[in-house]
Amino acid sequence: MSKRRLSAPVFYAALLPILTASILAGIAIGSTTLDWRTVVHVAGLKLLPAGWVNPGGITKADTVIVWLIRIPRVVVAGFVGMGLAVAGAVMQGLFRNPLAEPSLVGTGSGAILGAVISFAAGWSVRSVVSLPIAAMIGAFVALVIVYVMATRGGVTPVGTLLLAGIAVTSLLTAVSSLLISITIVNWQIGQEIVFWMMGGLDARSWTHVWLCAPFVLLGFAAAMFQTRDLDLIQQGEETAASFGVDVESSKRFLGLTAAILTGAAVAVAGGIGFVGLVVPHAVRLLVGPSNRALIPASALTGAAFLILCDLLARTIHPPVEISLGVITALVGGPLFIGLLIRRYWEASAT
User: Fold this and answer.
1) How far is CA 315 from CA 33, 161, 180, 310, 326, in A?
2) Phi, psi values for residue 113, rounded to 5°
3) How far is it, in rounded angstroms, from Cα 175 to Cα 30?
4) Model confidence pTM above 0.85
5) How confident is the model at residue 318 (pLDDT cuts 50, 70, 90)?
6) Are 321 and 31 within 8 A, CB to CB?
7) With 0-12 CB in 10 A as exposed, 13-18 as middle and 19+ as buried, what is 195?
8) What is the pLDDT of the chain when averaged over all its residues?
9) How many CB atoms lie within 10 A of CB 310?
């Protein structure tokens, strides 16, 4: 039984309005609800040349809410969702497993450890950029450790890479837990660490956008550059080598790409699960396994998904803001279970 796929134009025709609506809703809806025309008006004033848009009718409060509070948060949510979804697509292709997720090579736990060190050392209090920088450094250090452990004679077997990733993840998680246990006596630091590990985008600013966006765009470009190699590796390493792919070099490059994307996302948003697992898995069912179509489709879907999840986190129980990681788990968990059930019934019907 052949599977029905959506063509790229049909998929984007359905997705782009959803993404646009999610961006507008994410900016307009909150503790102070704004008219969407006000959102567009303020954005036009800031983005278009002076004199192109009449500033009449826009208050200073509107400008602060839209440009300094809501838009940076929505932009960060979009880039984080994009980064995690693309990293998930890359890891699923690299491990030839649609159930793989971005943190399999230890980058997520490395980023969390870097952030915990930043909290424990007091760096996060001194500078807003110290926390994301420490998280990104932690992600890259974890990746290097995993590859050093898994590589022998210039060869990195995927199975060994997976086992090394699991081992390093367990070790780094234990170190993070140890540091949390030591610092938990300081209630404020302990609370900050716990909230950050649960994931969230409160108080995100344009600084966080500039810290995250370049790395996510770089990782996305690198992933698109490797789509042919990734497609061939999915068919098997021997097949890829027969088509002239330097398999070992490609695996290292793909792992580095996933680490850049994951580290940048975790650095500004904390621990957020299910996005890199559910989004590329669901998109693959719609557009097929070709990474040239899958990766950009996953990027836009991940952005829309996380923007909507963040909107739920802010509005589902006002004035309390639910942790974003909790929302993605509550939404992504049932969705993923549904996808697994669908796969089971499709397999049983063949």
Assistant:
1) 11, 41, 30, 9, 14
2) -60, -45
3) 37
4) yes
5) confident
6) no
7) middle
8) 89
9) 31
User: Which residue is listed with tokens 């920088």?
Assistant: 133
Other beta carbons within 10 Å of 239: 13
Angle subtended at Cα 213 by Cα 141 and Cα 137, rounded to the nearest 5 degrees: 15
> For 86-142, what is the HEC assignment?
HHHHHHHHHCCCCCCCHHHHCHHHHHHHHHHHHHHHCHHHHCCCHHHHHHHHHHHHH
Q: Give me the residues paired with residue 155 across strands.
A: 152
Contact in structure between 278 and 336 (CB atoms under 8 Å): yes
Task: From residue 227, give the alpha-carbon distance in Å to each of 44, 199, 237, 256, 257.
Answer: 36, 30, 15, 15, 12
Express each pLDDT in 143-191 by its tens digit: 999 999 998 888 888 888 889 999 999 999 999 989 888 887 777 787 7
The token pair at 306 is 């996380």
Cross-strand bridge partners of residue 277: none
How far is 163 from 111, CA to CA, in rounded Å?
19
Cα–Cα–Cα angle for 33, 76, 337, nearest 5°? 90
Contact, 42 vs 48, CB < 8 A? no
